[in-house]
Amino acid sequence: MNWYLARDDEVSKRFAYAVDDAMNRILDNPDRFPLVCGNFRGCRITKFPYQIIYRFGKDFLRIQAVAHLSRRLGYWKKRR
């Protein structure tokens, strides 16, 4: 988001809204999105080249990364 903010305030706002929308879609139904790498799922961020990478269980949902779609799949796996 900082990258967008440094370039265009309006685009950064649209990105923030798109991330919020994606998060709400994930929270509504975490099973809805496909597995992208191991037990991690990915939800595309509408109109931006990113996806939210996450995993969940009975009592948790963990966001692993907001990953750019052109990056190598799994580059975010070692993050804590």
From TrEMBL:
InterPro entries for the chain: RelE/ParE_toxin, RelE/ParE_toxin_dom_sf
Alphabetized, the UniProt keywords read: Toxin-antitoxin system
Please give the Pfam families that the UniProt record associates with this protein: ParE_toxin
Return the protein name.
Answer: Plasmid stabilization system
